[in-house]
Amino acid sequence: MDDLDRARRGDARAFDSLARAHERALYSHVARILGAGADAEDVVQDAFVSAWRSLPGFEGTSFKAWLFRIARNRAIDVIRAQKRRAELPLDPPDEDGDPGWAEPVAGGPELTDIAAGREARAAVEAALAVVPVEQRDALLLRDVEGFSYEEIASITVSEIGTVKSRIHRARVAVRNELVAKGWKGSSG
Amino acid sequence: MSGMTEHPDLLLSAYLDAALASGEADAVRAHLDGCARCRGRVAELQATSRLIAALPQLAPRRSLVPRLGRAPVWLRPVRLLGAIGSGVFAFLFLASAVINSGSSLGGGTTTAERLAEKGQFGAAANALASDAAKGLAQSAAPAAPAAAPSAQSQNVDTSRNTTAASGTPVARADAASAPAAPREVAGPSGFGPPPALFLAFAALCALIAFVAHRRLRRA
């Protein structure tokens, strides 16, 4: 019997072990949606409590995907509440057209040659921050957490076509932001 | 779709992630073979994806895992009382064992004498004997088996002594001054509860303390 089975039967220690295994990944994801700090911490903690209470009814196969679904839904609710107060939409409506491909300026390093150093990390974090929330969410679930498109569709309660579109748009947006900061695209 | 004439820009990320149906993937692959522009875009999307994947995990400032198995508040006092109780009963066990062994070692050579001494000590424990009474009881010790009727059935010599001594005034005085003595002498262990009982209580308290401690450590 693994930790998930024991946790499902009410073993708090087994759940504790599961939660600790996903704590940082979950916080990182929520912090990149909401911004690092108390809000993201509260969302993750609430998600754990909610998961513990709902665990007896959990019948899926991926505990991680289920946990991410709970946490990202709470994070989206927080953003919606914030935007509602400011009377702003969560994201601009999804578009079907080409997101646009920015032309690089000469002089910067090529994207394909960027080492994952501190400068590159800061630039990528900054580029991600300008991507609309639901696109960023889908891209992070894919590139950072490695979920399949089907799993992302389940986590975000979206159609698979929407997931494909969001991931592509977000990836192009990050690439365009990096290019706008001086990185040189390999095709440029 | 194999005759793809337009650039399949919107499919490039899904192609990169192997998320296209096989027919679509074949068509995109065929297009890429003859299109340097799209190959370049795929390379940049892949580089972007790798940069995002290389982002480090962020650390929260505090633990976010709720303490779901928190122990009930009464568990700490139970652990403390269990530990104390275990010590007290262990002490009582040792004390009673020493007293009993001491009284049996210091007693007379016959069963009747030992029983008499135990009867005398019971009287003293009940605060019915003063120093003078102790002396009196000690001097009456050989005659005291009169207060231990059970001894008559255990030893023929005892019954003879009892018959001989029962008429003495000293034995009568002892019996009168210590009414509780005959009841205690009648028991198999003499003074108070048997030591094994204290030992059992000590073990029980230690077990309670141990279980409470384990539960507190898990919480």
Describe this structure in words.
The complex is a heterodimer of chains A (188) and B (219). With 188 residues, chain A is mainly α. Chain A folds into 2 domains: 3-86, RNA polymerase sigma factor, region 2, helix turn helix motif (Rna Polymerase Sigma Factor, Chain: A, Orthogonal Bundle); 111-180, Winged helix-like DNA-binding domain superfamily/Winged helix DNA-binding domain (Arc Repressor Mutant, subunit A). Chain A is 65% helix and 0% strand. Chain A has 8 helices and no strands. In chain A, helix 4 (63-86) crosses helix 7. The N and C termini of chain A lie far apart (55 Å). The relative contact order of chain A is 0.13. Chain B is built from 11 helices and no strands. Chain B has 2 domains: 9-53, no CATH class; 75-209, no CATH class. The longest helix of chain B is centred in the middle third of the chain and has 32 residues, at 75-106. With 219 residues, chain B is mostly helical. Chain B is rod-shaped and about 110 Å long. In chain B, helix 4 (75-106) packs antiparallel against helix 11 and helix 6 crosses helix 9 (169-177). Chain B starts with 11 loop residues before the first helix and ends with a helix. Chains A and B meet through helix 2, helix 3, helix 5, helix 6 and helix 8 of A and helix 1 and helix 3 of B.
Summarize the structure in short:
The complex is a heterodimer of chains A (188) and B (219). Chain A is an all-alpha fold and 188 residues long. Chain A is 65% helix and 0% strand.
Please give the alpha-carbon distance between the first and last residues of chain A. Answer: 55 Å
Give the beta-strand count of chain B.
0
Q: What coarse outline of chain B follows from CA principal-axis ratios?
A: rod-shaped
Largest sheet data of chain A: none
CATH topology of the largest domain in chain A: Rna Polymerase Sigma Factor, Chain: A
Radius of gyration of chain A: 18 Å
| Residues in helices of chain B, as a percent range | 55-70%
Percent strand of chain B equals: under 5%
Low-confidence blocks of residues of chain A? none
| Second rung of CATH, namely the architecture of the largest domain in chain A | Orthogonal Bundle
